Input
Amino acid sequence: MFEKLFKLKEHNTNVRTEVMAGITTFMTMAYILIVNPSILSVTGMDAGAVFTATALSAVVGTLVMALAANLPFALAPGMGLNAFFAFTVVLKLGYSWEFALTAVLLEGIIFIGLTFLNVREAIINAIPMSLKHAISVGIGLFITLIGFVNAGIVQQGEGTVLELGNITSSSALVALIGIVVIGVLLAKNVKGALLIGILASTIIGIPFGITSISSVSFDSFLPPSLAPILFKFDFANIFTFDMFIVLLTFLFVDMFDTVGTLVGVSSKAGLLDEEGRVPNAKQALLADAVGTTVGACIGTSTVTTYVESAAGVAEGGRTGLTALSTAGMFFLSLFLAPLFLVVPSAATAPALIIVGLFMMSPIKEIDFSDYTEALPAFLTMVMMPFCFSIADGIIFGVVSYVCIKVLAGRSKEVPLLAYILAGLFVAKFIFGF
Output
């Protein structure tokens, strides 16, 4: 059955290799089951319900990838996008988490339409490459700052914007130990380094008094109910400019993450065709669109393809059976919710900081010798953590890109869409809408 469905021999693989690759991929990305509820719960969402939504959305998206695209990639709610959801849309802009879920739903529906119309790649190609790389880096810096603040390593200063926190506090010490543990595991190429680091930090947190094991109970093996967040939408503000910015950010970041991951991991797996194209790309893009739409309905942030899929590919995964195995592991995790939900924020902080490191790598692709590319990219990167807003970073990046290119006499290098976006962003600041 597996041979007929996934064409294992054609891809020079077998069931055992594919299953082990799928388990490896799960181990490298299972940290999202801990981190996503931790991040989204700051908005007032029920952490247990978010855990269930996280696991189920990963199952749905990854199953579509496995069965429709036959590719060894896994999906789950994306890092960076969940931070934007919680810290920018809800905590900074002041909207409800129901409003943010509505934006995610609209994003998913739009992506489904764009995928069938074959225009997602065209939109991505219209955005300057330097800004694409910078957005990833900026989000990495933003996530890192969140991790430091959550651990108490960085705090608001007296007379300064930020200052070093009390690094001898229990939470800060646990987080610092966790960073070292994960760093050593990564240096030794240990699979699942982030997850192991989170679990180690959680255990270390017991004698420090920040991990409460008394709350662990397996009275019921059923996953937490989705009822508190299921189909909770707010359509009252969908025609506001803030909704446009929020939706645009979700769209852009998800497109960049997904396409970049598909191309990068496919190249590593030797799956690209002679023209450098990803096989079944349309079906692969549909997977994250369906996952995002379903995820919004059940109560989680944008679902995207995970670069951690490269771990499974490195173990020999070449077909959708790898993804199917990963989906199976996410399904099984639903029944271990008490273990995942006991993890304190100080134990997830190291993972946030290390994920920030992972997201820095595209900075190598930015041409810093061309200031019409470098300065907008720089502003995009630094304004995200400095303004505590992913959206503000994108706005500064796009507007400065257009202005500098035009004034430098290189207006022909600016895509039409960039002009339109810059005009809308400037109008927002002038008219305040």
User: Anything to note?
Assistant: The chain is about 65% helix and 5% strand. The two ends are 57 Å apart (CA to CA). The mean pLDDT is 86.
